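INFO batch 0412 | record 1 of 1 | parsing
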Amino acid sequence: MAVRTPDPDPDDLPERDLASDLSGLGGVPGGSANPAWLSEVELAEARRRLPILYVEAVPVRTDGTGQVTEVGILLRSTSVGELTRTIVSGRVRHGETVRDALYRHLENDLGPMAFPQVPPQPVPFTVAEYFPIPGITPFHDDRQHAVSLAYVVPVTGTCEPRQDALEVTWMTPDEAATDALSAEMEGGRGSLIRQALASVGALR
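INFO prediction complete | emitting tokens
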């Protein structure tokens, strides 16, 4: 199954996921001044010609010693009405820092009261490469070639999913690493969850 990060709504630009660093290719329908917007046609053309930069985040809760106790997995509805499990993910805007993009997508998917603990200079635990042709890497996206910087991000607040995220399910690290969950994850992200848990010493 292909990765399906949400595409933006031109009527809701301040919080929706915008196209990344392609500012010279088009404006927002309706006259918005944001130069990073791409129409559906322009976005399809960009995806055909260029790798697209994403950030992804595995939200976790930790105990008093900093050990991961829970992993947050999103339930999302696809454009064709299928339900799938995923993590926080989205494109980086033109002129936006990686940290700002990470924080924006965490807030978009988990709500403004999630209080993600994003460090001043976040370091990804891995770089995931998504290809439209299956089998090149563990990750697949039939729309595009995408390069994703992946992070583990502790959250301390209340998560109230919004936009196209239907709910967030908190699982123990052992539950999040199961083959059963991996089979439900889109785009090969079960492998990404295991890498995330291994990076913080939570994979047994």
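INFO post-check: Residues 8-32 have pLDDT under 50 and may be disordered.
INFO record closed
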